[in-house]
Amino acid sequence: MIATTEIALSKSATEGAADSSTGVPSRADLSWRPDLRAPLIMGLAGLLVLQLLIAFGQYLSAPSTRAFAPQTPLLAFKPEQVTAIRIEGAEGAESVRIDRHNGTWVIGELDDFPAAGFKADQLLTTLSQLKRPLPVATSAEARARFKVADTGFNRRLTLEGASGPIATLILGETPRFRRLFGRPSDDSAVYELDLALADVSNRRADWLDQGQLRLDQAKISAVAGADWRLERDGEGWRLVGAEAKETLDQERARDLVRTLANLSYRDVFTATKAPAEDTSKPALELRIELSAGEAHVYRIARLADSDDYMLKVGDRPHVFRLSKYDWMDMIDLDRSKLIVQPAPAKAADAQPESSEPAEATPSPPSDTDAD
After folding, report:
1. Closest CA to 103 of 123, 83, 131, 133
2. What does the domain layout of the chain look like in residue ranges?
3. Given 31, 116, 123, 153, which is the most exposed site by the fewest CB atoms within 10 A?
């Protein structure tokens, strides 16, 4: 037993000596665990753990901030609370106010002329759905630069309720397509909002209901002027009292009826604030009759110092402003313009021969005559 142990120890010593002689490191020399307990390594490992903890903490906190901000309404109101919308432009620019009376949007300064209700409702829906994003700036210099200062802005929109103002939104420059810098008036931070400047127009004409002159074309039964009258005749029209040589221009008649049925306008005035008309040019008066017995009387006149026209409809209290593109060339309409005009006679290809005899050309004197 003793001899066996001595042989094993001798063999181990012989292998260790052989490893040393061949230059191969022993198993004890390959151990790296003692190096990890060095003070420098321990310090670096602790610093790494601290950095990982800080980064993990920031990761946990950042998503909660981003998730919270978009859920906060920018303006705290409900669309049904709003009874009036007031939109002001930059200093000295036009402003408009739209009021809701009994569920209908009107423009009060025009004696309650109907406003584009769908646009007003859509604006309130858009504003109520705006969320408060992360601010892009908070300084007074930034508010002035982005045109959202209290006294320097592109638009100021005020929503009013039964008890007074509900919210005010100040809007400024456009950073990109359909985006605006803006802020609530009680918030000093500037935000980038999902709005377009056209959504908050301060022009009264942009909020007019454009359907007040629309007629059902199929129900127009007759149109009459000073010296002519058109009546519906099946799919076409006939000129009442036309002479044998007068053929109605059907395309011209259809154009007239189509224009009257779809007439649009650029602005509206109260009767007391209507612009002056050009009295040097005659006005056009038309009577439009509908199949149900209803009739409308139009008076269209050229405006003074303008290419536009004004339209007065019967006893309505408003005057409509038409552009020349709305009315086209109908302002000079008379009976002759509704008749098919004969084609102009073609000029003769050759000049007619003169009936007067041509003068004889005197011949030069000859030598005989000289003798």
Report:
1. 83
2. 79-207, 217-338
3. 31
For residues 81 and 122, what is the distance between their CA atoms, to the nearest angstrom? 14
Please write down the HEC assignment for all residues of 230-286: EEEECCEEEECCCCCCCCECHHHHHHHHHHHHCCCCCEEEEHHHCCCECCCCCCEEE
The amino acid at 360: A
Closest to 334 in 3D by CA, of 279, 276, 284:
284
Give the C-alpha separation, 178 to 171, whole Å: 13
217-338 topology per CATH: Immunoglobulin-like (2.60.40)
For the chain, how big is the Rg over CA atoms in Å?
A: 45
Percentage with pLDDT > 70 across the chain: 78
Note the pTM of the prediction, 2 decimals.
0.71
Question: 41-72 pLDDT, tens per residue?
Answer: 777 777 788 888 887 766 555 443 333 445 78
* pLDDT score of 9 more than 60: no
